Amino acid sequence: MQSRNTLLFIALIVAVVSLFSVDMMVGAVNIPLSDVWKALIGGDCPESTVKIVRNIRLVKAFVALLAGAALSVSGLQMQTLFRNPLAGPYVLGISSGASLGVALVVLAGFGSSFGVAGAAWVGSAVVLMFIGIAAR
User: Mean pLDDT in the chain?
Assistant: First the structure.
């Protein structure tokens, strides 16, 4: 069983690295993997390629990795906290609380990007607090 888990973990790491590489290559301008690598290590490639890879695609790819990791960890913590394998943000109403917070902020006229994100966070936190109180 241990060797099966090890092989699965290695396969998942290879898949993440492969998909990260594809994310760096594909876009409005397709860039070959060799040029992506040269742009990352400072090799000889066009300046426009360096700007596209370093300033746009690298940031986008890292944010995608971090967002996916954060979502998976938050789902695991929610299932652990409520001791329910079906616990999720939609089942518990947390997503609806976030939507309510955003709707209230937009209707109040504070519709900036930070205001909307903060309202979603506050709305979901309030609903999670109520769920925690009701669970006691």
Answer: 91
Residues 110 and 40: their CA atoms lie apart, in Å, by 39
Percent of the chain with pLDDT over 90: 68
Q: What is the DSSP string of 68-89?
A: HHHHHHHHHHHHHHHT-TT--H
Rounded Cα distance, 39 and 26, in Å: 15
Amino acid making up residue 135: A
Write the DSSP symbol of residue 62.
Answer: H
Q: How far apart are CA 94 and CA 68, in angstroms?
A: 18
Run of H or E including 44: none
Local structure of 136: helix, strand or coil: coil
Q: What does the domain layout of the chain look like in residue ranges?
A: 1-83, 88-136
Q: Are 37 and 43 in contact (CB under 8 A)?
A: yes
Residue at token pair 């669970």: 135
pLDDT tens-digit readout, 53-76: 999 999 999 999 999 999 999 889
Q: What is the CA radius of gyration of the chain?
A: 21
Rounded to an integer, what distance in angstroms lies between the CA atom of residue 130 and that of residue 88? 15
